[in-house]
Amino acid sequence: xEPEVRYTYVGAALVVLVAALVAGFLxxxxxAKRDAFRTYxxxxxxxxxxxLQIGGDVTMRGIKVGQVMGYELSPTQINQVRVTxxxxxxxxxxxNSYAVVSRNLVTGLARISVVTPLPAGPLxxxxxxxxxxPVIKEGTSAAEQLQDAASRxxxxxxxxxxxxxxxxxxxxxxxxxDTLANMRxxxxxxxxxxxxxxxxxxxxxxxxxNFGKSGERIAASVERVAADVGPLxxxxxxxxREVTATVVSIQRDANALAQQLESATGSTALExxxxxxxxxTTADLLDRTLDxxxxxxxxxxxxxxxxxxxxxxxx
Length: 315
Hints:
By secondary structure, the chain is α/β, with parallel strands linked by helices. 60% of the residues lie in helices and 15% in strands. The longest helix is centred in the C-terminal third of the chain and has 94 residues.
């Protein structure tokens, strides 16, 4: 019997030793976990927790920093849920950080996101009185923000419709209708005036075209007159030179004849003097003709009214 009793004691001691080793290992592991993580409490009251599971992810800016350790309904506030989370010690959870619930659209699983606004406050390490762990405040989710925005938009739309109804009462509708009628009449009058303006502009354009054509015809006529007068002017200048030469020759002959008349005697001298007198008269007539030929325009178009003597007039 003694060997059996001894084997029993050895087996029992061995079992106790193994149990102690397991317990020590678990204790060391838990201590290491406690040193690597911090535990926080979150009270959710406004946000639903559909799809939230124990072991679910806790993220910051999309990076997993912890997991959900457990959750329970509050015994004092039925609409409040206490959620315990464990977050990496190195994660910067500040006293102004807040938690929101987000869901995967495909799987429907929920996760808790911890958001820290800027500027960040000091690290959250102290528990409030009556709580075992520090408390992270509940934030407002994107769905709640969207719902609030929709509510505000609906309220603004309702207010706008009320104001539109107030604006479109019977009196304002009548005034608006009168304004539209006046605008219609004004538009019709403007259309008529614009049609008249278009007609006037068309007439002006036509007149400008006619004036341009008349100017072209006048320019062509002036060119033709200039072309016709040019040769005539040249011919008049040539004739003037010839007449001038003739007059000079006649004057020279008259002077020579006068000298001969002075030396002549009797009736021959008288006849010569008469002949000289006629030659002088002829020279004067040629001189006047020369004066007229010096102005070809007066020869062609008649004398200038400003150069006429008293009592003279164009026939």
